[in-house]
Predict the structure of Cytochrome b/b6 domain-containing protein.
Amino acid sequence: MARARGADGARVPVWDRPVRLLHWLLAAAAIACWLTDSRWHEWAGYVAGAAALARIAWGFGPSQHAHFGAFLRGPRATLRYAAQLAAGREPRFLGHNPLGAWMVVVLLAVVLALAATGWLYVNTDAFWGDPVMERIHVVLGWTLLGLVAVHVAAVAWMGWRHRENLLRSMLDGRKAATPPERA
């Protein structure tokens, strides 16, 4: 893959430290939920829920590319981008593209729903041991796993399409100011 630099070689800050830390904290907590027993699963779920809430709060904060108002687009713009993507003529975005932006919202919503259903299931008399609440929680868990798979695949694909190392940008927070030339 080509290095994530524009024609002038400049890499500019895009993802600030809170966004990156919350992203990787959410990823680690989700992995821990999948791989640990109920005691650790419960605590990892609390961490995931808190990280999702913090990311939502940061989405209304001062960060340019993390602010929901800076990257969420309406249905018309999102559908236009999807059509451009399907035709192989999608524009490159420095921050989230319209589909990626809505994926952020959906992922955060599912994580919050998982945290809420998990908490209700183990901490309230009304839902403690309730098989329906358990089933909802399990279905949400599988939904999150599927969404994460789509997210990872989309990051890999868009990185390839635009010749950028998007994983690196989520580690160091920087992206090419201008897109590299497509071959």
In short: Residues 11-176 form a domain with the Fumarate Reductase Cytochrome B subunit fold (CATH 1.20.950.20).
